Description:
It is built from nine helices and four strands. Strand 1, helix 1 and strand 2 form a beta-alpha-beta unit. The chain is globular. It is mainly alpha-helical. Helix 6 (138-155) runs antiparallel to helix 7 and helix 7 (159-172) packs antiparallel against helix 8 (177-186). It has a two-stranded parallel ribbon with strand order 1-2. Strands 3-4 form a two-stranded antiparallel ribbon. Helices cover 46% and strands 8% of the residues. The chain starts with a strand and ends in an 11-residue tail after the last helix. It has two domains: 3-65 and 98-132, no CATH class; 138-210.
Amino acid sequence: MVTVAIDTDVEAARPFHEAAHPTHPALTDPGHTLVELLGFTNVPTAVWIDESGTIVRPGDQAYRAPAASPPAAGGAAQPQQQYVPPPEHREVLQTLASIIDRSGRYDDAIRDWAAHGAQSRYALSPEQVIERSRPRPPEVGMAAAEFELAQHLQRLGAGLDAVPHFKEAHRLDPREWTYLRQALAVADPAWGKVYERDMLSEVAAVGAGTFYAPLDL
């Protein structure tokens, strides 16, 4: 198992790696290479690759079943403050909650593949992998080029000059949510409102069903 944070800023991902105390390789992908090579459009996404380097499942949403919270000191669980979303975000959050699968089915599928390899009913044929993989029309390639240029400008310290290229990457490939996530993450509040909408408002505009594909096992 290898986990990869997709973030231009390696240091932004470091606290999450350290908090997780991983016992497997935990990397950061500042160039968004997984987007380019494997068609990732959001996180968390997982891809299965066998010992020969062959993809046997393309990207699936990879949410785990929720873990039981340990009791606080003294044995009593402490109540947590509940987040109340603003009215304009409630509908999209409800839709996303209905798409995200935390049933534990994905955990079970991975264990089945680990136990049975190519004989697992969850391992797909090459034809099925290609059928499920994301199409790559010219617009996707142009969006990737715009995003790479935006990242280059950002790294040079010309973040405001990067904004039009982040915008164009999102316009060309609006279902590639890692692009918008990154653009919003590096936006400086001092620039003012350079993006028309926040993430959830943009999800509502593009379509909540594009944010995660339903888990198909």
